[in-house]
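Methods — Computational structure assignment.
A single polypeptide chain was analysed. Its primary sequence is given first, followed by the predicted tertiary structure written as structure tokens.
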Amino acid sequence: MEQNQHFKDKLRSWFSLLTNKKATKGARISFQVAWNLILLFIVVVVLVGSFAGGVGAGYFASLVKDEKVRPYEKMKKDIYNYEETSDIYFADNVYLGKLRTDLEREEVKLDNVSQYLIDAVVATEDEYYYEHNGVVPKAIMRAVFQEVTNSSVQSGGSTLTQQLIKNQLLTNEVSFERKAKEILLALRLEKFFDKKEILEAYLNVSTFGRNSSGRNIAGVQAAAKGIFGVNAKDLNLAQSAFIAGLPQSPFGYTPYTQAGELKTPEGLEPGLTRMKTVLKRMYDNGKIDQKQYEEALAYDITKDFIPRVESTVEKYPYLTMEIEKRAVEIMTEILAKNDGYTEQDLKNNSELQNEYEILADRNIRQNGYQIHTTIHKGIYDAMQTAKDNFAYYGSDKVEMVKDAETGEMKEVIEPVQLGAILIDNSTGKILSFVGGRDFELNQVNHATFSTRSNGSTMKPLVVYAPALELGKVSPGTVIPDVEVYLDPHRPNEPYPRNYDKTYSGLVSARHALAMSYNVPAMLTYRTIIDQRPAQYLEKMGFTTVIENDYTTNSLALGGITNGVTVEENVNAYGTFANGGKFIDAYMIEKIVDKNGKVIYQHEVEPVEVFSPQTAYLTIDMMRDVISNGTASSLKGRLKFNSDWAGKTGTGQDLKDSWFVAVNPKVSFGVWNGYDTPKPLELRYKGLHHGARNVYLWADLMNAAYDAAPELVTSNQQFQMPGGIVRRSYCAASGLLPSEACSKAGLVETDLYNAKFVPTQSDDNFADGKFVYIGDKRYLALESTPEEFTKNGVIISPKLFEEKYRIPIKDVSQLIPKREKWAGLFVADSKLEENGKNPSAPSVSLSNSKIIWNQHPENDVIGYRIYQKSGGTIKKVGSITAGDQRSYQVSTGEYYVTAVDIAGKESAPSNVIQFGQTEPPPDKDQPSEPPKEDKDPPDDGDGSNPGSGTSPGDGNEDGDNQPPMDRN
């Protein structure tokens, strides 16, 4: 009650004040003041707001003042100028993989993207995407306020459009200037492009972590393939949600490690949680219904993660690296040419070359090219398997090398390496190659990069083919294979030597090549060296030839200063298969940009090197290498028949082993050796080093045949061109046969270029007599007893000394040690007699034979056997020096004398008595042998009828004979 009364009293008091005029006037004044203050505050607020807005607008303008207005075409180019990984292909459009790049990306059109993925990205990254004009002011103000107040919660304010601008037109710099430019460009982009275009660009630009090869990926197509193994259009709801969640933290949410291995369950959890968040936003935004949402949450997406996939460079390391290198070389020339530079400009300016190589490397990796190669996948794969299965490379060896980090010497195990390459003759396409044993052990491509001495495979290229072309040699040209001394630094040491350090005398060029004799090759090379035959190597694609190679004899044997690659060596052999035209080998068929435009197409440009006649004659000579020469071990190793012609080669000290061969379809060659040059084993598992390489060649070729027989062989033979004839020649001179040559049985036939057939008959022959001492022949003197001589054909060494500008110190080496040459000897093969009678030999009895040792005097050419019987002395036999020194006797007394080249005869040897003898002669019986006993007559060939002994064969039964001692 008291409280109510108190309230009434207060109310009366206030009312009385209102009715009081004075009080009313004061209240009115107070109200007016308050109202004015309110108006003033409003004005101040408006003014401050206007000022702040003006300042803000001015500040915004100052931030973007340097940003030029970008026209539509420029923005379009920049927005769609995202890096796209280039694809590489085997021949026949067979997909190989992607080039190495820091970020793998594959462009995709929006129409080929799952709608689930589109909805998931929009719901997660920009829920008002289809409503705003590039920016959301509320989100921007929130983001600015959070930035200014340094709020711990940063919600972000970028739309998809702004994110695209940031990725493609601006940098990732955190600044108000960059943000202002981003807003301005986003608004402008929305005017130029529709939502579909912007969204498509965003989906191709965004990064999505790693794929199952451990490579960084960008773009939803690369993500779909690299994570789930499907195209972007085939992603299901759960997969779409997983991919849509990745851009927030690509490497935190990615399911793969850097090695391409699937993460542990704990490592997968962040990504799976993020997927659930995406699904919730899709549900909240009405993009999916509750059933879809619940099914997607229950879906086990981990079963969809594909297992680790080898990257292209892991599966095909040598091939991928080689394609990259060649593609960069091509693109370097294209870019330089577009800027007005020539290939020669690049060669003359290393800095310019380096600049364009860098640009080309970046260009080829980032612009989504399709690089089509000539490599046949089936052959390439088959050769790698054959290479891995080969069992006869040889032993690993230890090499001491300096550690690049510590500087200390350490042991490195080096295996025998190989390089091999298969080239199509008519086009130059490289169908396959083998770069080495193990890329992880050594990344050098031994087929296309390593340079080594090519040994005797050089002989057809720089010796015989050029000499054939210049008319200095034909297959039937006769060349001396004897000791020569062509090294001016070691004038008393034979050089060159043959690989087996033996000599074969007079041989044809055909035989010299088949057996890979070094002396004939170098002698032939010396006849053409003034005409600079190394130029033929350069015409056939050798890039390592230098001026010194033009003047050195050793080039004939593969002594090229800087070596040669397997590719260049094999490629050169294709010249012979192509009728003398060189066709440069290549691996890149064409390069197509992402718009389908062919920006590079290889064109075949044949180079005339040899005439068709030279090419065919070289091929025909090299056929003998395989049929009966140094590559005869190939017989029976191939699964198929083909018209092969080739050449083996061995580097100095067995440091390199080669075999290159061609047929009408392909050229194929293999090299073996250690990376640090060191001798190969002469024998390994019972196989000679040359045979091992031929076996490897055969295994690889068989693998190629199994994979694509139509590419490596046919029933076609090398076709002989016109202008080739078959002619007879004398095997002892190479000239037209004379009567003396025919009598000696030395007429041969061979093929000739019709322009260079022999026109001169040899007048270097004459009938004559010679003597044998062992397997050597010497010119008989007028006084040489006929019983020790043979009739034959005499040749002079001067023919060869003058032609090849050499002295032949041991002319007896000219005569081959073969039966057909038994009747030939050299006119200068003289045996100097010592001017005195030989000393008497000493004889002994062994069973029913008398025997004696070789006479110590070198001019002794034979022995006479005498018998004392019935008081008479008669000659019963003659044996040439070097034959078996024995004589079958019957009852009686015998002695032997020695006869020298001048016909001087020694005193009798000691007398040997065998069986029952007659009484000794009286004292007046002469002790010297008669000059000649005509009864019974000698048969003239040094044999005694009925004695069982002949000068050539010794005793026919061959039992109990002393060993023959030959000079």
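Note: The CA atoms of residues 175 and 188 lie 20 Å apart.
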